[in-house]
Structure formats: C-alpha cells, structure tokens
Amino acid sequence: MSSREKILKAIRGCELENKHLPSLNFGECKQEDLLAKFSQTLAAIGGRCRKVGGVEQIDAYIQEAGSKYPCIINAVSELRGFNIIDFVNADARTLASTAIFIVRGSVAIAENGAIWVTEKNIGNRSLPFLCQHLIIVVTEEDLVVDMHDAYEKNAIDIDGYGVFIAGPSKTADIEQSLVIGAHGPLSLEVFIIESSSNKP
C-alpha cells in the first residue's frame, strides 16, 4: 500500500462528531440604524453614500455630470439616459473611456459596505472595473445587516454571475499606505432611494 493510499484510508476511517451550526441571530436592527451603519462603513473604505427621495434627484445629478464627463453609461432603465444596450458587446478598449457607469445594486450590506451587483443589471462584466467613477443605485429595502442576511436574500443560483463591490479600487501593498483608485474606479457613490419611493 502506497503512502497516498494509507493517508486516504486513515481519512476515510475518521468519524467526526456532528455538531449544530452556531446561531446567527444578532437581534433586530432598525432601518435607520442600517442606513447610518452602511454610510459609516462605506465612508471608511473610501466610498460615498447619498440618500435621495426618488429617481428624479439621480436624474438631476446625471444631467449635471453630463456637462463635465464625455462618456456616461447608464444601466438603470428608469433613469435618464439609459444606454447600456449600446455597450453590452463592447470590448475593453471601447469601455476604457467610460467616465461614469451607473448600475442597479441588489443588496447593500451594513457590516462591510459591500453591494451585490448581478450580470443582468451590469450588462457588460467589464464596466464596473474599467470606468473612472462608479455609481450604484439601491433602495432602503435593499439594506441588510451582514453577509449572512445577504446570502439569504440573494438568489445566487438564479442570478448566475454577480460580484460584491465594496468601495472604489484601492491598494495598500506599498509601505502599507492606502491608495484609493489604484487599479479601477477612482470613486464609488451609492444613491439610496427612500422606502416610500418607487424602486428603479
């Protein structure tokens, strides 16, 4: 019997005691507390959070940004200037000139400031990583406490490709000095639409 077979036989012979998973009940958290916690966490990792009353305020922001930036790609159909259809099959060279990319997020996590974005909302997988400035739109109902809640809320088996995005790109490899906008978006801004407003 080879060493490999001996090791595998020993592993198969081990019987581990079944143990119950720990409880993940962290108690109730009010919606306003979630928003404050998410905003604080996002700021700590270099992002910005802005609460708005409805999509018209985001439209006004897009219109203002349009006078400053030549290329804005919008993947949120309810917002002004929806044009992701024109870029779904675009290559990286074309997308590299994107100044602002606007996308809809599915879940925003107060624990770590991450936002779950699915491929059906992105349109083109490269855009969140090639744009200069990233804007993600969520609603207050999309806020959850932690990753456990996020996985319960997400239909990952249905969504297919998706990505958790937490803040703008950053690195601290050199002299442990944090650099924002190192190899991707220079900024991340999250618009949170109030509960009473219609979801985009």
UniProtKB/TrEMBL annotation:
Pfam families: LUD_dom
Chain ranges of the LUD domain: 94-193
Gene3D superfamilies, per database record: NagB/RpiA/CoA transferase-like
Domain of life, source organism: Bacteria
Annotated SUPFAM superfamilies: NagB/RpiA/CoA transferase-like
Protein's UniProt name: LUD domain-containing protein
Organism: Flavisolibacter tropicus
